[in-house]
Design goal:
alpha/beta, Cobalt-precorrin-4 Transmethylase, domain 1, Methyltransferase, Cobalt-precorrin-4 Transmethylase, Domain 2, 2 domains, 5-stranded mixed beta sheet, 7 helices, elongated, binds S-adenosylmethionine
Length: 226
């Protein structure tokens, strides 16, 4: 069996009981170093740990697929939830083993942002730039979401489309500088938050950052005007 499990935002306390049980029973646990480190305290000592990087993912996932064919219980761990900015890894896992695999949800960094900033999912669009290839369709989706009066929770792309680049792109494309923005770093860990207006976002952030662009607040003159 291979299961792909979201480990949540970083603090083990956010892992579901179902996910914890599967990690505790697994013969093989695979994932990026930082992700495996989150669940290391609950992995059985005899379990084989396969850590991977962006370059050797395919090779390491075929090791996991071989272990699965030998009847071992395998778990591939990833940050947050697999259904937000995690699909490329899921596709690679399914390609390596040749069939669909089960996924177990985790608490996404997007859910943590919504919880910290108290924004409603149903009024918010989720966009990730943390992907390979052309970002243009996703940039345009962000512009449309904001034009439609929706909040946007945005994962930047290290290191060429970071929060300040996203702000710059939005301003260049006519988005109002008055949009309130929040940037969260290392949620549930050594957490920090920056809050300001879109045109004040000129700071550098680490790759563990996620951005919230809020809908435009009405001008004082517009309040109660209808
Ligand atoms: C490949 S995406 C995976 C997102 C993950 N699937 C999720 O649901 O949160 C990795 C990016 O998510 C964001 N991220 C994940 N965990 C975070 C955290 N604890 N705090 C801030 N940003 C986080 C960062 O931008 C990071 O580079």
């Amino acid at each position: 069996m291979i299961t792909v499990i979201g480990v949540g935002p970083g603090d083990l306390g956010y892992l579901s009981l179902r996910a914890a049980a599967l990690f505790g029973e697994a013969d093989v646990v695979a994932g990026f170093d930082a992700v495996v480190d989150v669940v290391r305290p609950i992995i059985q000592p005899a379990a084989q740990v396969i850590t991977m990087g962006y370059r050797d993912q395919t090779e390491k996932l075929s090791e996991v697929a071989n272990a699965h064919r030998e009847g071992k219980r395998c778990v591939v761990a990833l940050m947050g939830d697999v259904h937000f900015s995690g699909f490329q890894l899921l596709e690679r896992v399914e390609r390596a083993c040749g069939h669909p695999v089960e996924t177990i949800p985790g608490i996404s960094s997007a859910q943590m942002v919504a919880s910290r900033a108290k924004v409603c999912f149903d009024e918010t669009t989720f966009i990730t730039f943390h992907r390979r290839g052309d970002l243009e369709p996703f940039k345009s989706h962000l512009l449309h979401a904001l034009a439609d009066g929706r909040n946007a929770i945005v994962i930047p792309r290290p290191w060429d489309f970071m929060p300040k680049d996203i702000a710059c792109y939005l301003l260049e494309n006519g988005v109002s500088p008055r949009h309130p923005v929040e940037v969260f770093e290392k949620l549930t860990g050594d957490e920090t938050v920056w809050k300001g207006a879109l045109d004040e976002l000129v700071l550098e952030f680490s790759d563990m950052s996620i951005m919230l662009v809020l809908t435009l607040e009405p001008m004082p003159s517009q309040i109660g005007s209808n």
